[in-house]
Amino acid sequence: QVQLVESGGGLVQAGGSLRLSCTASGSFFSINTGDWYRQAPGKQRELVGTITSGGTTNYADSVKGRFTISFDNLKNTVYLQMDSLKPEDTAVYYCNCQINRVTGLRGYWGQGTQVTVSS
Prior knowledge:
The protein is an all-beta fold. It has no helices and eleven strands.
């Protein structure tokens, strides 16, 4: 059984920063990719960014230059550093990781963490 636990959300003023963490636990070999999504009220879930085990990252245009995804292999944790936050970044943020298990590659979701940016 594999679980992803997120932490780090909260309330911040516009221009501020937050760092989200997504830690995998359970029985598995490695994390293959780590994605961050977000879903604002009344909107569809959107991809914020992705990191591969090799460290390659890609970001949505709306967050490029402000958000940074990183990966700590030893801690089995994917991070989302969010700087210069804007009110439109307010959403529930979810991580999704493709994890290598003895039965093969499978995707898992975190529980979501609320980020609220006040103007």
